[in-house]
Structure formats: structure tokens, C-alpha cells
């Protein structure tokens, strides 16, 4: 009991002290006043609709914004009070539901600084962070984690696989002030590490010494030919020989067909190219390793994690088949608060919609079975009717046709 009370007190303290920079659950239609569609020329952007999809746990709480048109670019964003994550964690979290069995399309979000113009947002608009799932065919099912750094967009050097089923999944990125990060899916850590190690923010600390050269007498061959090994005198045999069992056909005409030659077959005595056996090289020094020196162009950056200004988030993506639902958008400085939101909001949605979907699938299965059974019964009835028609058309041997009489044979 004491443990439970302590845990509740800790969670309450965490929630109270969490800095929530932005949160959107799309609980009503007010999102249309806060989010702005791009009007960037040259593209036909698709529209989002507020929806809970074809299967859900709670009719209202599970509503998010859903892509509604196939083969469209989508560009929707909103701005909020600017902040910097200096000396604090940065947590970006949202849920994605690909209920349409997505074949090719993005499910990621972009984080912007205050230079964002929502009405002109497009694929080339500079962003601070891009995070979330991306699927296109069987070869691309990944979670993007991209940071902008000194004018370049840097992709993570690791492959993080995203979820590709039809249920709602929670994606969380945590960037810490010690220059480490974590990626969570459904509140479970799927990747983590060091920013400098997993992105090409900085040049390598070490480079190969340009002045160093492999010595001309360096022998890096582990084995050499045995100088005492000699090829046997009877080694050389032809690879192919005339077939000794072949004979010239009786109808072969040398004048017409040319001189007959037996077909060639593999020589069973052929041993291949002779090579001397190998022995250890007495002069072997091992592989030569190029010496490294400190890279003069390398300069450490203890603030790789830091974003000087964040004040916008948007969905800038392409979808071949629409139907993706985005929800539970959160930007905060507290990983524990984000985790609690996941437990309280995402988890009931996931568990509930899974039960509903499984029930729907079972109902569909039974319906298909009933339809198949009905079709089979109708086919069997049709076959029986056909058989009856055939019987009616035939005449029994004992039947008398109209006008026909039986001849009586009186043996007396």
C-alpha cells in the first residue's frame, strides 16, 4: 500500500512539473481553427478529416485526423509558443494508425522553428527534426529520425523498423541534454545511443595519417608456395578425351559428312591446374594497419542535442492509399509524463480496437462461410432440378405411347 501511494505521489509530481509545450488530442472540431493547410503552389494537397476509423475502442476519445484522399500530398501544420530544449530533455510523441493496410506513404511529423509559414509549408521547407514511420513496399518499413545541423538534414545511421499492421501505435523520440537519445514504439525502447555516434554531425575524430605509407619490405602474406614442392611428372592430363566407347555410325559418309571424330568426354584422370602446397611465411608481419592521427577538422560539440527555437509541428507527407489516423500529439520535456500519457491514452485504444477488429474479422469470416454454404446449396438444388428434368424427358420401357396398343399373345 505504501509503495502504491509513493508511486502515485511520484506520478503526480512528475505531471505537475512536466513542461508541456504542445499537446493535441483532436477531441473536437476546434483543430480546424488551429491547424493550417499549406497553399504552396504546384501541388494538389489532400484533406484531413476527424475520424476514429473503422474500428476503435472509444468513439470520441479515439478520434484523430485521418488522410482522406488517395495519391495525394498532405501538408498541415500548426505553431505554438516558442521554446528551447537547452539543458532539458526534448520529447516528441504521437500515435499513428495505418488502418488501410498502407502500401506506400509517410506517417512522420516535422518539427519547425518560428520561421515556418504554415500556408507555404512544402517538402523543401527547412525543419529542425523529422520523426516517425515511413512505409513503401516491402523494402521500406522504417522509423525516420532526422536532425537538421548546420544547414544539412542528417539521417540516423541505424535501421529502425516501424509497425506495419492496422492498429494504433505510439512513436516517441527522447533527446537528452547529455547528447544521447531513445526511440520508443508503444512505450518500449527499440533504439538508443549517442547522437555523435549514430549521426554524421561531426567529422571523424581520427583520420588516416596522410604521411604514413606501408613499408616496401612489409610482407603481409600469411602463406607462401612451398619451394620444395614439385609438380609430379604424370600430373598433366587433358581435361577432355575422345570417348573410347564411341564408334563411327554405319551410315557415316566421309565425303558427305567429313572425317568422323568421336565425341569428347571428361577425362577421369584430369587433375586440374597444379599448384604447390602452401607453407607458413617466415617473413610474415601481419596485416599493415594505417596509422591514424587526430583529425584537425574535428571539433567537439557538447550541444548537439540543443534546438535554439521550436515553435511548430506539421505533417508533410505523401500517401498512395489514404486512411492513416494521427492522434495524441505531444511535445514535452518529461519522458515520464509522455510514458504516462501512453499508458493512459494510447494503451486502452490499442487493446480495445484490437478486440473490436478481431471480432469484426470473425464476423466477416462467418459471413463468408454462410455465403459459401448458401452458394453450394443453391448449386446442389440446381443440379437436382436438372436431374429431374432429365427423368421427365425419358420414357420407361413399360410406358405406352398415345395411340399405341399392346399386342396380346394368347397361347391357347
Describe this structure in words.
- The protein has 412 residues and is of the alpha+beta class.
- It is built from five helices and 22 strands.
- The strands form five sheets. Strands 1, 3, 4, 6, 12, 13, 14 and 22 form an eight-stranded antiparallel beta sheet that branches. Strands 2, 5, 7, 8, 9, 10, 11 and 21 form an eight-stranded antiparallel beta sheet that branches.
- β9 and β10 form a beta hairpin.
- The longest helix has 59 residues.
- The chain is flat and about 95 Å long.
- The chain starts with a helix and ends in a 19-residue tail after the last helix.
What distinguishing features does this structure have?
412 residues, alpha+beta, Jelly Rolls, 5 helices, disordered C terminus
Strand and helix layout:
Layout: H1 2-17, E1 20-24, H2 31-34, E2 36-37, E3 48-51, E4 64-67, E5 72-83, E6 90-98, E7 104-106, E8 109-112, E9 129-136, E10 140-149, E11 152-155, E12 168-175, E13 180-185, E14 188-194, H3 195-198, E15 206-208, E16 223-225, E17 240-242, H4 254-257, E18 264-266, E19 278-280, E20 292-294, E21 310-319, E22 324-332, H5 335-393
Antiparallel strand pairs: 1-22, 2-5, 3-4, 4-22, 5-21, 6-12, 6-22, 7-9, 8-9, 8-21, 9-10, 10-11, 12-13, 13-14, 15-20, 16-19, 17-18
Signal peptide: 1-18
Organism: Cryptotermes secundus
Keywords: Calcium, Chaperone, Disulfide bond, Endoplasmic reticulum, Lectin, Metal-binding, Repeat, Signal, Zinc
Amino acid at each position: 500500500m505504501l509503495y502504491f501511494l509513493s508511486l502515485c505521489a511520484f506520478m503526480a509530481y512528475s505531471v505537475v512539473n512536466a513542461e508541456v509545450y504542445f499537446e493535441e488530442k483532436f477531441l473536437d472540431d476546434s483543430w480546424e481553427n488551429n491547424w493550417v493547410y499549406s497553399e504552396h503552389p504546384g501541388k494538389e494537397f489532400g484533406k484531413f478529416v476527424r475520424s476514429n476509423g473503422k474500428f476503435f475502442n472509444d468513439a470520441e476519445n479515439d478520434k484523430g485526423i485521418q488522410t482522406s484522399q488517395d495519391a495525394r500530398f498532405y501538408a498541415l501544420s500548426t505553431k505554438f509558443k516558442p521554446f528551447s530544449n537547452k539543458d532539458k530533455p526534448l520529447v516528441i510523441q504521437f500515435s499513428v494508425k495505418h488502418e488501410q493496410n498502407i502500401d506506400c506513404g509517410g506517417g512522420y511529423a516535422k518539427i519547425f522553428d518560428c520561421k515556418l509559414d504554415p500556408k507555404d509549408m512544402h517538402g523543401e521547407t527547412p525543419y529542425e527534426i523529422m520523426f516517425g514511420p515511413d512505409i513503401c513496399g516491402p523494402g521500406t518499413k522504417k522509423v525516420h529520425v532526422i536532425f537538421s545541423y548546420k544547414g544539412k538534414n542528417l539521417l540516423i545511421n541505424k535501421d529502425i523498423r516501424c509497425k506495419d499492421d492496422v492498429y494504433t501505435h505510439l512513436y516517441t523520440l527522447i533527446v537528452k541534454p547529455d547528447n544521447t537519445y531513445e526511440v520508443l514504439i508503444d512505450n518500449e525502447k527499440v533504439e538508443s545511443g549517442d547522437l555523435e555516434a549514430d549521426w554524421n554531425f561531426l567529422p571523424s575524430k581520427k583520420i588516416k595519417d596522410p604521411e604514413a605509407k606501408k613499408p616496401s619490405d612489409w610482407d603481409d602474406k600469411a602463406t607462401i608456395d612451398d619451394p620444395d614442392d614439385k609438380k609430379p611428372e604424370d600430373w598433366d592430363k587433358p581435361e577432355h578425351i575422345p570417348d573410347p566407347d564411341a564408334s563411327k555410325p554405319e551410315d557415316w559418309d566421309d565425303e558427305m559428312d567429313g572425317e568422323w571424330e568421336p565425341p569428347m568426354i571428361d577425362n577421369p584422370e584430369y587433375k586440374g591446374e597444379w599448384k604447390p602446397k602452401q607453407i607458413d611465411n617466415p617473413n610474415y608481419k601481419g596485416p599493415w594497419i594505417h596509422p591514424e592521427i587526430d583529425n584537425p577538422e574535428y571539433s567537439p560539440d557538447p550541444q548537439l542535442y540543443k534546438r535554439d527555437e521550436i515553435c511548430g509541428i506539421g505533417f508533410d507527407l505523401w500517401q498512395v492509399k489514404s486512411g492513416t489516423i494521427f492522434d495524441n500529439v505531444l511535445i514535452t520535456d518529461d519522458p515520464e509524463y509522455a510514458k504516462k500519457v501512453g499508458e493512459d491514452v494510447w494503451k486502452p485504444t490499442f487493446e480495445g480496437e484490437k478486440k473490436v477488429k478481431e471480432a469484426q474479422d470473425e464476423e466477416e469470416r462467418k459471413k463468408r462461410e454462410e455465403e459459401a454454404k448458401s452458394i453450394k446449396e443453391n448449386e446442389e438444388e440446381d443440379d437436382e432440378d436438372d436431374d429431374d428434368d432429365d427423368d421427365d424427358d425419358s420414357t420407361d420401357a413399360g410406358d405406352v405411347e398415345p395411340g399405341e396398343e399392346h399386342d396380346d399373345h394368347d397361347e391357347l
